TrEMBL record:
GO terms for biological process: signal transduction. It comes from the Eukaryota. PROSITE patterns: PROTEIN_KINASE_DOM. This is Protein kinase domain-containing protein. GO terms for molecular function: ATP binding; protein kinase activity. Pfam families: PK_Tyr_Ser-Thr (PF07714). Residues 1-124 form the Protein kinase domain. Gene3D superfamilies: Transferase(Phosphotransferase) domain 1.
Length: 124
């Protein structure tokens, strides 16, 4: 796993965050293409999305979009709304997968921090 994180493809300079874990709204481009418009703000909802991706990685020992090697292809999938898939060879408990998917819902429908805390406490 260390090699996966030390390769240049996981580092970005022009994109806020790492595309494999970051919320899709961080990659939205303004429709009027105004270069002076502020980049999307980081938020608790963005963190919740990332928490879902981290949970997937912890449960499977594979990075999100593990089956896609090129980050520009991952970015295309993120922009199109395609979510990571769990590795076929690993079984994730349905309750875990459903919670991960909730973390990846649209910004206003993601779990709250309180719901994340309850989920983690219940799983411990």
């Amino acid at each position: 796993m260390i090699l996966e994180f030390t390769t240049p493809s996981y580092l970005t300079t022009s994109i806020r965050g790492n595309i494999r874990w970051a919320a899709p709204e961080l990659f939205e481009v303004p429709e009027d293409d105004d270069e002076n418009e502020a980049a999307p703000l980081l938020s608790i909802e963005c963190d919740i999305y990332s928490f879902g991706s981290i949970t997937l990685q912890v449960l499977t020992c594979k990075v999100p979009y593990y089956n896609v090697k090129k980050d520009h292809v991952v970015l295309e999938q993120v922009i199109r709304g395609k979510k990571p898939e769990p590795p076929k060879e690993l079984q994730i408990a349905l309750v875990h997968w459903e919670f991960i998917e909730r973390c990846w819902l649209s910004r206003s429908h993601r779990p709250t921090v309180g719901e994340v805390v309850v989920f983690v406490a219940r799983e411990l």
